[in-house]
Specification:
Structural class: alpha/beta
Shape: globular
Radius of gyration: 23 Å
Strand order of the largest sheet: 14-15-16-13-12-18-19
Helix content: 25-40%
Distance between the termini: 64 Å
Largest sheet: 7 strands, mixed
């Protein structure tokens, strides 16, 4: 069963009565799943007013109270993980085990923020005048509007929401219209956990219209966005023109540096799994593979074999490791990148085409000897497409890895402490993984540099976007 979809405004679930909306379909079968109601301008204004009213009391709530609500929401999410994951598989396409794992990982974020929101401390600054006390306190910034993506509909939204709520802010969330069931599930979790009315609200609609109305509202003080670089730039400019605090987690085009002394089989197996996770629709997905000349051919063969072995199908089928892409336009984008690379002289070693006559399925694809001027080396594929090229020296690897304006994640495979230390220090990325991947834990910061954004959606830094600093001096 697929859940009923709705808005959530001021503690009430609002259905599609008289509202415009859109159909939601399974990307694996094109079957109709449900109808998503869009918010009217009046609905959006009502959500903003509800969040503003709720902020007046929520900002003064005890951290213990906030922590208790988050704990209850986490417990409910654990109980409902299979149900929520089933909805994600239907409207997003990822395999059910991945969908359930997304929910459970998000539960860890809820639980972690439930603990850490009790530890948002200020400080006492020694005074030059012994008669004066100097205090620095951190206070909730205000109403937050958040925009979350479709690729991790539960996890990405939850990271924003729990940090904001834990900090004492209230939230209006515009979730992904393509994969909405997880967002409605979040609303039901907080509703059942006893979160006061108006602290959390959800709206849907035409993204450009909704985002402008939300960001331009004088009631809003914080904007948090996860998505593509072009949209992020646009929203950042809009938020900046209204002096709104921002957190931007934008796209990447993660370089992979595989050195001659790497464990080839271990690297190839891990990278194939990471590349096909959520059909490659992951902002930290490895995308540009640079392999040192001494092991190039061996790595390419091993990696291509691993990619060919991935089982593709509907996410509810047993043993499926990769589901469909979310849109037809994602399929088209992958086709265009492969064609462009082949015309530039690259060779297709695995995959290269679509699968079946129904659903947005694409083969896990490996293209080798890709020249740097090919589009795939400059544009994030956001799909199951890996582009490989060779390099000779560490200097070459760093030059290639840092060649783009993106800087979200990077991957390094080497057994040399000297090489790993230098490369980790000089790679222009917010997160560098050496011989493994370990970026999703709630206690760790998650964010990028350069055009990949600013701010963190993990670690103690996750509260920074939702808190303001106040100085109090007293004599």
């Amino acid at each position: 069963m697929y859940p009923e979809l709705s808005l959530y405004v001021g503690g009430r679930f609002l259905n599609g009565d008289g509202r415009p909306g859109q159909d939601v379909r399974d990307p694996a079968t094109f079957d109709l799943l449900g109808r998503l109601p869009w918010a009217t301008r009046e609905d959006v204004d009502a959500a903003l007013r509800a969040a503003h009213r709720a902020f007046q009391s929520w900002r003064r709530s005890s951290p213990m109270e906030r922590s208790e609500v988050l704990r209850k929401a986490a417990a409910l999410a654990r109980e409902r993980a299979s149900e929520i994951g089933h909805g994600i598989t239907l409207d997003n396409g990822k395999p059910l085990p991945e969908a359930v794992a997304e929910v459970l990982n998000a539960v860890e974020h809820i639980e972690w923020h439930a603990e850490e929101c009790r530890r948002i401390y200020g400080r006492v600054v020694p005074s030059r005048n012994p008669a004066v006390r100097q205090l620095v306190v951190r206070e909730p910034a205000g109403v937050c509007v958040a925009f979350s993506p479709w690729n991790f509909p539960f996890g990405q939204a939850m990271k924003k929401v729990v940090a904001a709520i834990g900090a004492g802010c209230t939230v209006v969330l515009k979730g992904p219209e393509e994969s909405p069931s997880a967002i409605v599930a979040i609303a039901r979790l907080f509703h059942d956990a006893g979160l006061p009315e108006g602290v959390f609200n959800i709206v849907w609609g035409v993204p450009s219209e909704i985002s402008r109305q939300l960001i331009e509202s004088p009631l809003v003080r914080v904007v948090s966005f996860t998505g593509s670089v072009p949209v992020g730039r646009h929203l950042a400019a809009l938020a900046g023109s209204h002096m709104k605090r921002m957190n931007m987690e934008l796209g990447g085009h993660a370089p992979v540096l595989v050195f001659d002394d790497a464990d080839v089989e271990q690297a190839a197996t891990l990278l194939a799994r990471l590349k096909t996770r959520n059909a490659g629709q992951v902002c930290v997905s490895p995308s540009r593979f640079f392999v040192q000349a001494g092991i190039h051919d061996r790595f390419v063969a091993s990696f291509a074999d691993a990619m060919r072995g991935v089982k593709v199908g509907h996410g509810l089928e047993e043993g499926v490791q990769m589901g469909p892409l979310i849109h037809e336009r994602r399929l088209q984008a992958i086709r265009e990148l492969v064609d462009d690379a082949v015309q530039a002289g690259a060779q297709v070693l695995a995959g290269g085409g679509t699968l079946g006559e129904r659903g947005h399925f694409h083969e896990p694809t490996v293209i080798a000897n890709v020249p740097q001027h090919a589009r795939v080396m400059r544009e994030e594929p956001f799909g199951p497409l890996a582009a490989l090229a060779r390099f000779d020296t560490v200097d070459d690897a760093l030059r290639l890895g840092n060649a783009l304006p993106f800087g979200l994640a990077a991957y390094v495979f080497t057994q040399s402490i000297q090489t790993s230390t230098r490369v980790a220090n000089e790679l222009e990325a917010g997160m560098v993984n050496i011989n493994h991947s370990g970026m999703a834990h709630p206690e760790l910061p998650f964010g990028g540099v350069k055009d990949s954004g600013f701010g963190s959606e993990g670690g103690t830094e996750s509260f920074d976007s939702f808190l303001v600093t106040k100085l109090i001096t007293q004599i």
